[in-house]
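Q: Could you predict the 3D structure of Carboxypeptidase-like regulatory domain-containing protein?
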Amino acid sequence: MRLITGTTLVVALAAAAMVGLAPPAAAAGSGTITVQLAAPDGTAIRLADVELAAIGIDAVVGNATTDADGTATFTDIPAPDTVTVTTRQLPPRGTQTYAPGLRSAIAVRGGTTVAVTVPLVIGATVQGGVASPTGPATGRLMYAWNEDTSQVFRTTSDSAGQYRFVGLSTGKYRIEAYASGTASPAVWKTRVYQQRGTLPASQVTLSRHYAHSDYDLIVYAASASRAPSAQLSGARVTVTDTTSGASFSTRFSTLLDSEQTAQFQIPSGQYVVELRTVATTATPARALWLGRPGGVYRYVAERSQAVPVKVVFGGFNGWGGAVPETSVAVAVAVAEYN
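A: Sure. Here are the predicted structure tokens for Carboxypeptidase-like regulatory domain-containing protein:
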């Protein structure tokens, strides 16, 4: 699997860095920045071929690549300026891949050299699988977008539909799997932490998700009070085709949130929706089904009361309702992928 990580967008001007803007020609008043990759305690990290960008107030002012000693030099930096040095791409090293790093507020003065370290720590790993209704979703373009920093990581699912992101920085990530250039992506979320002192970086394995080209089924769930619910954090949602018996299952995010979402890309048909909540210290795990007692859609505890929902290509159908106070309120929506 070809893996590209660490495309850094954390600084607003990193977008300019990605399109390869060349640094300006040497200015009469210019300075130099020498860089050493280092651990947070200052110990040198000897890592070659790390691409670095120097970003000034309103432009990319330099590009450099580290040598075998993990050092690099930016010359002819226009001065005076306040510069941020950031990594562009870090060489993959499996679960020991470093997360993107940066050093900000570097004051550059004409005719002087500033020596700085760029701290690096081991990044988090997120892996999982994507599937279509007919088998593994091979060759799907996958993105992991850090919603806290706007860093973006990219990879592609392999022949078994497996994907792996390494070197992720701390944050809440939106994972996206693309079926085609025109279809909306399948989306799910997770939170990870890079190495923190003696605490190791997160290594997260997510449940399998479905990335189909044409259909989209979304199941929403919230507590009756609309307050974040531990019962829904990581709860499993399964939809089963009433004709073929094919089942598709995924989990809600483990983030404690006021509303949880499960997304499926599946063929058209009639589906029974099942929700298995998570056990807490106050409540046991429960199995609930979407039903329509009294003509009103809501989740029920009796499987015999489950009412299938229709998934139709090109159509839109919505269901929602309340459940007893000890349960959850759920809404279901179906939308075509365009």
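Q: Anything worth pointing out?
A: Residues 3-119 form a domain with the Immunoglobulin-like fold (CATH 2.60.40.1120).
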